[in-house]
Amino acid sequence: MALQVYNTMSRKKEIFTPQMEGKVSMYVCGPTVYGYIHIGNARPMIFFDVVRSYLENRSYDVNYVVNFTDVDDKLIRVAKEMNKTVPEVADMFIQAYYEDLDGLGIPRATANPRVTENMGLIIDFISELVEKGYAYENGGDVFYRTAKFKDYGKLSGQNIGELQFGIRIDVDSRKEHPEDFVLWKAAKPGEISWASPWGEGRPGWHIECSAMARSLLGDTLDIHGGGQDLQFPHHECECAQSEALTGKPLARYWMHNGYINIGGEKMSKSLGNGVLVKDLRQNYKRTAIRYFMLSGHYRNPLNYTDEVMDQAQRSVERIAIAVGNVKHRLNGQQGDPEEAAPEFKAKLDAVLERFHEKMQDDFNTPDAITAVFDWVSEANLLLQRAHCNPADLLAALAVFDEMNSVLRIYEEEAAELPSEEIERLIVERTEARKAKNWARADEIRDQLDAQGIILEDTTQGIRWRRK
Q1: CATH code at 313?
Q2: Does residue 341 share a domain with residue 458?
């Protein structure tokens, strides 16, 4: 089997062949850190984490970069509203991002470059474009000359004369052409800024990724990814900037995930229907959130509802029960997975082959999850036997672990808090409240909540139950 990837640039599936054997360079556009991330942000976070995990499963060494945009108009506005500096706001929400990242079971990227830490190389990049005639200065702003780059529009498939301007492309009378976009913005009074050959200012949005990706991964990336909303104008502009400068393709494979809808409607601030990851994590296991995100093909829209999330929770619980039953049946017995019964091992091999077949078909995670449930069925049939060969149980766990190392839709549950300890903590919390030690009372409440313990006030006193 050969891994095939749908390339947005060619609009077809292509055999994946990285530039260097055994190595993959992957750049995914990260968040603008002016607020908490929502589930639309989380979809590429989870999906491209799975891409990285699967490539590593296939023995590739993956250099994975996700950037932070830590200065722009939104950050400046929020900083004023919060009476903080732009770096303080950025630091606050980068920390929140990492908390959500951990909460979703996503390992850190190889690097998370920040715009403000790479200002010198961004200015140098713009200067080179000016020298080559692809950029021009007007009134302290620097614009990219799209008419000079003959392939502008190739990624999004738009004709330059018929372009529909996307987010962050402004109509400006100082531009030579309306579709020209800003590379450097002159600072307004009181705004955060950096010195440049064109005066005090800060970078435009698109130039940041071009400069940081080139610095960390070279002129051509193996994979450039992000949400479908970034295809135009952001990635289109990146293509124009980078390829004008280097004369090389910016990326061999462009990958874009689809939108998330909320109850059938597009998620948007104007509709007020956004769902923050930090809130979602309070109600659902991270394995359920990951399951939901992977339950549809990444290029298709995904519809969020409470009912869909509840179903995802039940699905991961079904998987967890099967895995737990296999581990319980094994209960410390020793064996060699290679000595599993040939007939059962053949069934496991077929499950794993189906899993890889689907993952190698453009990372088809919903069908890969179906293979996981095929494993659940085989495991449950095995457990119906009066006696289970330890080698069979170990072989089953080995196959499951390989699939789960990519999807991570199961994790070992933490040991439950004993009932006696719960009762003791409730008594301590009651005494703390009587003593008006609200901090300790809240601390105990949060501790119990983290363990899935719900407290209910009744006329007979406090009653507790597990979620």
Answers
A1: 1.20.120.640
A2: no
The DSSP code for 437 is -
Number of DSSP helices (H) and strands (E) in the chain, helices first: 14, 15
Instruction: Judge if 371 and 232 occupy the same domain.
Output: no
Give the total residue count for the chain: 467
List, as residue ranges, the binding site for Zn(2+).
Answer: 29, 209, 234, 238
Q: Are 338 and 457 within one domain? A: no
pLDDT single digits (tens) 215-263: 999 999 999 999 999 999 999 999 999 999 999 999 999 999 999 999 8
Residues 342 and 396 reside in one and the same domain? yes
* DSSP H/E element including 455: strand 453-458
Q: What does the pLDDT look like over 349-404, one tens digit per residue?
A: 999 999 999 999 999 999 999 999 999 999 999 999 988 999 999 999 999 999 99
CATH of the domain at 236: 3.40.50.620
Q: Are residues 394 and 335 in the same domain?
A: yes
Report the number of distinct structural domains present in the chain: 3
Q: What are the binding residues?
A: 29, 209, 234, 238, 269
The residue range of the domain holding 229 is 4-266
Average pLDDT score over the chain: 92
16 and 129 belong to one structural domain: yes
**Residue-by-residue DSSP string for 29-52:** ---BSSS--BHHHHHHHHHHHHHH
pLDDT above 50: residue 165: no
Strands (DSSP E) contained in 29-180 are 61-66, 135-138, 141-144
> Which pLDDT belongs to residue 168?
44
Q: Which of 438, 358, 435, 341 has the alpha carbon at shortest distance from 393?
A: 341
Average pLDDT in the 99-121 region?
A: 97
Phi, psi of 373 (to 5 degrees): -70, -25
Residue 158 inside a domain? The answer is yes
What's the average model confidence in pLDDT over 103-130? 98
Compute how many other C-beta atoms are within 10 angstroms of the C-beta atom of residue 189.
Answer: 5
451, amino acid identity:
Q
Look at the block and give the residue holding tokens 């474009």.
Answer: 129
Q: What region, left, alpha or beta, does residue 447 occupy, with left being phi > 0 and alpha being psi -120 to 50 degrees?
A: alpha
- Mark residue 68 as left, alpha or beta (left: phi above 0; alpha: psi -120 to 50; beta: remaining): beta
**DSSP characters for 315-361?**
HHHHHHHHHHHHHHHHTT----GGGS-HHHHHHHHHHHHHHHHHHTB
| Co-location of 203 and 243 in the same domain | yes
d(CA 389, CA 339): 9
**Residues 369, 407: contact at Cβ < 8 Å?**
yes
